[in-house]
Amino acid sequence: MQAREAQPWAASRVRPPVREQDLTILRTILATRGGFTHRQHLELAWSYLRIHEPEEAQRAMGAAIRHVARLHGAPDRYHETITRSWVRLVALHLAGSEAESFDEFIADNPALLDRHLLGRHYSPGRLSSPHARRQWTEPDLRDFPRAT
User: Fold this and answer.
1) Is 148 inside any structural domain?
2) What is the per-residue pLDDT across 37-69, written as a single tens digit (0 to 9) for each?
3) Structurally, how many domains does the chain consist of?
4) Which of 18, 113, 122, 132 could form a disulfide with 63 if both were Cys (CB 3.0 to 4.6 A apart)?
5) 119 in any annotated domain
6) pTM of the complete model
């Protein structure tokens, strides 16, 4: 196995930049959907998972959300655990999906639209903790299902 090239953000607090391809996807969703609600976050995760492996999709998603938060003067709004959890859940559902569009995918998986779904996996205190906001935190109520 070939060693991965070290990234400057891997061992520091420096965050990865948004790649142009990922930024184009983000801009398209913002322009065509008219906002950046929970549904658009799911669409962004779905879009990134269709072109990236899950770990890279999580990185791209984090970079994109931080970018939007900075543009809106709210860089502290980004939440690492929530972002990664939703990418995981979308990836899990995408693995068994034959949907060719996001609208088709979400019609087949309407439970993902429940913004409170993470409450099945995390207690409120754990999910709202500063630690969970800054870095990945494992669920304390129920593990996420594994793709089969």
Assistant:
1) no
2) 999 999 999 999 999 999 999 999 999 999 888
3) 1
4) 18
5) yes
6) 0.84
